[in-house]
Amino acid sequence: MAPTEFISVTFPNDNTELAPKPGAGVDTDFLVKYARALDDNDYNYTLIPYGSASFDPFTLGATVAAVTRKLKIIIALRPNTMYPTVAAKQLATLDQLSHGRVVVHFIAGGDDVEQAREGDFLSKDERYARQEEYIKILRQAWASSDPINWEGKYYTFKDFRNNVRPVNGTIPVSVGGSSPEAYRIGGALADIFGLWGEPLKETKEQIDRIYAAADAAGRAPNDRPKIWVTFRPILAETEELAWKKAHNILDLLKKNRAGPAIYPSSDKAPQNVGSQRLLEIAKKGEVQDRALWYPTVTATGARGASTALVGSPQTLIDSILDYVDLGCDLISIRGYDNYHDALDYGRYIIPGVRKALKERANGVETNGNGIEANGHGQEVNGERPAKRARAIRE
């Protein structure tokens, strides 16, 4: 089994859905502090998101890479915004500057209005077909400095030479989505496939479809995409405090109507299948599985990653382990107070999950905190659970 890795999301300032700061610019001090906090707390990746009205991910990503040592930078990229030969060089340049720490996450585009803001008027199926062609061009551009001629439906060029090569020969490609075309393209071409947090049953169904697409493309079982699943954990010392905190967050989300969206939203129903799925699942009940909470989905119209996990450290660790057992390799966790939540996850959640997995591998029976279960609630592998949880922000 591949090691479980953790992802956060980096924004250029402390603007959040709970405390909006309209028009806030880049806060360099915050950006550096946040990036270093992720690095110091053993996150593996951070996503630099993209929106038509947002800051440039490449510039932010270069800043994050410059002030960190281990953290991998996931650059979100919409094919309509950059010609693939240019993207191949820019990504490879950043990869060299960061000593091989770059990943690219493709966004085909799930909203016609948002795509039109930057001159993209293709249909959804055409956007996915363009993305498929784009990825193939990048792969070829990174593979060799030999001249490339390309004549496709969306891109045509002659005698392109790329002398800017990735450190490890290529750059991992991530694809997300919940439509048949997303499964097909991601299953065939992606190194990573991103999903939003759905219940275990529905997540397993999506993983099966991604794997089936990979198999149909002739990929070996050990070459299938890694699965990335995203949650918005709400953490507190006890279950009671966590649920109180969750309802306070929900009240603010409703008040702010999802606050500062990555790109301007609309009151219309979402066009992308992923958001539609979340809203349909929300109709089945507020809490699903151990602690998957859906009112945050309905409060924000499912625009972006919005499913919460609510509970004490043990509950959240157990919930994440359920998804690891399902086959999820990458766990994205971002809260509603980006910086402080990242610190709390780094202190209580990430080490707890890793300890539990390590002790499983060594044949030690543990509870959800990765603490050996001896039946007496005594400290075995570090601090007692109550002591560890006491400092969590309510």
From TrEMBL:
Residues 367-394 are annotated as: Disordered. InterPro entries: Luciferase-like_dom, Luciferase-like_sf, SsuD_RutA_monooxygenase. It comes from the Eukaryota. Keywords: Flavoprotein, FMN, Monooxygenase, Oxidoreductase. Residues 17-329 form the Luciferase-like domain. Residues 381-394 have a biased composition (Basic and acidic residues). GO terms for molecular function: monooxygenase activity; oxidoreductase activity, acting on paired donors, with incorporation or reduction of molecular oxygen. CDD domains: Alkanesulfonate_monoxygenase. This is Luciferase-like domain-containing protein. It comes from Kwoniella dejecticola CBS 10117.
